[in-house]
Amino acid sequence: MDDGFLMEVCVDSVESAVNAERGGAGRIELCAGLVEGGTTPSMGLLQVVKQCVRIPVFVMIRPRGGDFLYSDREVEVMKADIRLAKLHGADGLVFGALTEDGRIDTELCTALLAVCRPLPVTFHRAFDMVHDPLVALETLISLGFERVLTSGCDSSALEGLSLIKRLAEQAKGRIVVVPGGGITERNLQRILEGSTASEFHCSARSARDSGMKFRNPNVAMGASFSAPEYSIKVADVAKVRTLNAIAKNIL
User: Fold this and answer.
1) Which residues of 19-33 are buried (b: 16+ CB within 10 A; e: fewer)?
2) Which UniProt keywords apply (predicted)?
């Protein structure tokens, strides 16, 4: 924590993790599959990131993209990934699980939290898919989550700002409400001032051209909506620094 706030940057590579730290991030959320909103990273990635940065690394535990309603076998994968992440140096963990009617899955969350401890745990943006966010917040507090990441149940933190503020007021320090979703240097000031948040979450990425000289334009390695093969998105040191400076001036 620095000057009363903390910037968390979500990253999916060693380069982005190093850039986030260089730019002034206070914490990293380590993921794979950022196109899908983040999935569990490889343990190899976690190991190398831990060797390269000193700031805390929170690891995403999400076995697939899509919804947050998990099968018994997916739950076993999540438990195994939590144990491995702890073994390889995770400083915290990030997960979320819902019931089919859009409520926090208290039974599953209780079981996963038990595997996570003693590490701190963030409930991720599955929160933005709940039926009643004010009730859901009380549930997370009762379960013992340290943080909840939210865009205010809207498409971005700016658009969900009024709910984020209401959640922060309701929390009264019992849980940290972390705005995230579409945060940029253009809207960070409004989000921090409007939410009274002490932490925020962003990706601060820029596209970097691939170093490949030979290129085959006829083949894509994923679905049509995936990122192009010859453009790599990485956390941008300058963007992270700018966001950090904006937050320091405000808070």
Assistant:
1) bbbebbbbbbbbbbe
2) Copper, Cytoplasm, Metal-binding, Nucleus
